[in-house]
Write a structure and sequence with these properties.
The N terminus and C terminus are likely disordered. A hairpin with a 7-residue loop joins β2 and β3. The strands form two sheets. A two-stranded antiparallel sheet has the order 1-4. A two-stranded antiparallel ribbon has the order 2-3. Helices cover 69% and strands 3% of the residues. It is mainly alpha-helical and 611 residues long. It folds into three domains: 136 residues, no CATH class; 356 residues, Na+/H+ antiporter like domain (Na+/H+ antiporter like fold), CATH 1.20.1530.10; 75 residues, no CATH class. It starts with a helix and ends in a 10-residue tail after the last helix. The chain contains 24 helices and four strands.
Amino acid sequence: MKLLWTISTILLISSTVAGSNNGNTRLDMAAQRRASNIHRMDTIILLTYVSVMVLIVVTAWAFKHYRFRFIHESGVTLFYGLLIGFVIRYFGLGLLQSQTFDVITKNKTIVKEPPDYLMLEVKPEGGSRVSFHYELIEGFFADKRKKIEQQIEQKSVFSPEVFFNMLIPPIIFNAGYSLKKRHFFRNIGSILAIVFIGTTISCFGTGCLMFVFTSIFQMGYSFKELLFFGALISATDPVTIISVFNDMNVEADLFALIFGESALNDAVAIVLSEVIENFSTSSEAITLQDFGSAIAGFAGVFFGSLMLGFMIGCMNAFLTKMTLISEHALLESSLFVLISYISFLVAEVCGLTGIVSVLFCGIAQAHYTYNNLSDESQSNTKHFFHMVSFIMESFIFCYIGVSVFVTNNQRWSFSFLLFSLISITASRALFVYPLSWLLNIRRRPKIPKRYQHMILFAGLRGAMAFALAGRNTSTENRQMIFATTTAVVIVTVLVNGGLTSWMIDYLQIKHGKDAIEEGQRLENSMSSSPADQHSDLDESVPVTMSPGLNPWDKAFLPRKWYHFDASFMKPLLTHATPSLEQTLPPFCLPLTSLLTSSRQRAGETSSFDCE
């Protein structure tokens, strides 16, 4: 009897353990199946995007080869994205479906803020309870009407942090690194006025006009939300316009004004949006104290980021000067890329703006570090960032098209979109014409009316506005702002970008051979000094300036910076001559001898400056 009881006990325990093992086995199989499905979906999405990118490259070649002028490849890229998004949404490519459960807290308390993680207990049949942790997908908010969604729809959506940390920095760095300094700095006063004053007017003008419209039609927006919309939508995109300008070889000063605005106002727009968001949580009414703190915050963040990026660029220049890393082009190029990216990350960690930092790091690297690089590294870095910038821009435009159909964090309103287009255009006109009139009082040559009309027309929106709008879509108002920003990007790229070449001809803006001849005539009339003639070739060559003939001599600050740069910064950070041993007083000789390279002592000059 005792033997039978022992045997039955063993069988009962064995069956219990077997049941538990079977339950855990089924759970393991389900988890493995889910992991395989996710891997498959990720691969499908990557294959889709990479295939579309190949098609985009071929399309870009066809457009340049056959010289299509009435539509730009950026517009076609958007169309490809819209087509892919439409197919994903309505043709059921995602055969694997995901389930959405309504989750409530154990004590049924109301959750006031979205959690970072959710813990869900799963109890397989015959097995023990297992807790699964689910992470919040940033930027994705499921449609409340749908309980079952295609996984491919979810996987087609990226976190906004991917844009800010991976896609945007190379684009912004390339804007600074490929800056055409000669024409840029000749127009620096006008560019900075447009960037700082113009972007601020555009931000507040758009916000105020939208507040009037939404108040009349009782759409339920606060003034702070609309100011935030005005800030993010003030970021213009240079890709389409500048590509057409390059193909048509338009007048250099117009190119510099539009490119300079587009390259720099992204940084201003992102700082404005962050400042507005920071004080928008304090109260509903905006006070003078809010404005004062906003201005102080803007100045601190912007110029702090500027100095940080510039210092990191100078640090890399000094490092490449004082070492022999140029003997190893691979290591030299790798160091250049990594330090450039560090400028973005350090600024973000310090609570500054990485976009501003990486932009001015690019400008500093082009001005100093580029001269220290070997010929191979100069070519490698220049083409690498140009290529990466093109790929990232193309991907973002494609993703904008895809997001119209696959993201569920957008609310569409035709009236809000119409008001936005009117406000954006009016706000841009509000600073282009008055600011140009003020600048023309002292500016030589003046900004002609045809330039002003083209600057107004060139206000395309692109990657930065889209990324800023998609960073926070937690409320219905934010979702409508995101959808409207997406629509504004599509409309401006398709309409303004497609009509750019026609507008150039309509406004009688010189291009091609006429623009080259006009540029040469202007150069001869404005400057006859060797420095101005060779500023694009080798800025380290010592030259004798002709006072009064160089445009730099007409302004106090640019003149002082030019001499400080030539006598201290370039000898310190590059192999330029004369060295610090010659430009600084004799009592500094022990220190300057340590900071002078053998190439400087040998009288060698740096390579051609980045152009």
